[in-house]
Amino acid sequence: MNTYNKPIQERIEWLLGHAGKYSAAFCSPEEYLARERYLAEHPTDIVVLKCMDGRINIPVATHTPPGIIMPIRNLGGMFNLGWPHLGEVLANHVQDIVTTGRRVLMLITYHFSKGDPHRGCAGFCYDTEAAIAHTYGIKAQVEHVFGTGHSTVYPIVCGFETDEDAIVLHGNNGETLEVAKLTEKDENTLGRRLEALFPDMPERVSRDLLPLLVGNIRHVIETRNIQRTLDIEHREWMICLGRGFDFLHMPNLALIIGPYSPDLADPIRKAAGIIQSNMSAGRIPDDGFLLLASVPYKEIGVDRARAELKSRFLSQFAAEVIRREFPDLAGRMYERTAVLDWRSRELELICKD
Fold this sequence. Notes:
Layout: H1 8-27, H2 29-41, E1 45-51, H3 58-61, E2 69-74, H4 84-98, E3 104-112, H5 128-146, E4 153-161, E5 166-170, E6 176-178, H6 190-197, H7 203-224, E7 238-242, E8 254-257, H8 265-280, E9 289-297, H9 302-325, H10 327-330, E10 333-341, E11 346-352
Parallel strand pairs: 1-2, 1-3, 3-4, 7-8, 7-9, 9-10
Antiparallel strand pairs: 4-5, 5-6, 10-11
Helix pairs in contact: 6-7, 8-9
C-alpha cells in the first residue's frame, strides 16, 4: 500500500495492520523452525549497530531468518558505549549469551551510496569518511568494554552500500572485502579471505559469519536483476522512539530514535524538523503525523509493567519536546504508546490519544 497520500488515520491503521502481519509471520511454525535450525547450525550471536534508515535490512540482505540478528538502531547511526542505557543493554545481552557458552559477533555499521552521495547517511551530512571514523571509535569502545583479545566478543566495522545492499567488511590489516565485487564462484574462497582479514577470529565465529556473506552475494545478484527506485525523496510521516521496530524495515517511512542517548531531546527535535519540512514541501499530507513509542519485554509481570512505564515516559517526553519546540506541528500529532512482546514480536498498544 502506498501510504504517503492517505489520510493520517488510514496510515495509522495500515501501520498497525502491518505490525500484526509481521508478528503472525514471525510466530508461524515455518519461521520458528527455521530460526531454531539456523541457531543450531550457527550458534554465534549476532548484534548489529546501525542507522535508523529502513534501507539497512541486514536479515533480508543476508538471507538470514528474522529474529536471528539483534538490531541496535539510532538516528544517524551514532552511538557511544558511555551512554548508560546503551552500555547496560549491550553488557546484559553479552552476559546472557556468554552464560550459554556462545560468542558474540558485533557488526558496527555505516552506510553509503555508490551512485549518489546524497543517498548516503544524512546523520553524517553524507560524509562517509566521517561515518567510518565514528564506527572505528565505537569498535575501540567495544574492545575497551569486552576485551581486545576478541575471544568472546568480536567487533567488525562493516559498510553497507544501499544501492545494491552490499556489505563491505573492514579487516584488521586495513584491507576490505567488498561483496559487490564477488560472484557465486567466490563462495568457496570466503573462508580464506576471512582468515586473511581477521587472523584472530575464532573459527566458530568465522564459520557463522560465512552464511551472511554467501547470502549477501546472492542477494546482490538478485538486486541487479530487478529495477530499483534509488532516488526516493524523504517522505517520513512518523517518529518512532524506543525499540522493537523491526517491522518498519522500509525506506523513507519512519524516523527511528533509539532510547540510548542521554540527550534524547536533540534527535527528537531533528526528527520533528524533518516531519515539518516534509509537510511544508507537500511530500506528505499536512493532516497529521504519528508519534509511536515502543519498549520490548521478555516476561509477563514485572518486566512488562516496567516496559509500560518506560514507553509512557518516552511518549510523554517526546510529545513535550515537540509541543515546546514545534507548537504548530504538535497540533497535528497523533500519539500511540505500545509495548512489544519480544517472544512473538507482537506490538501491543497500551494507550492512544
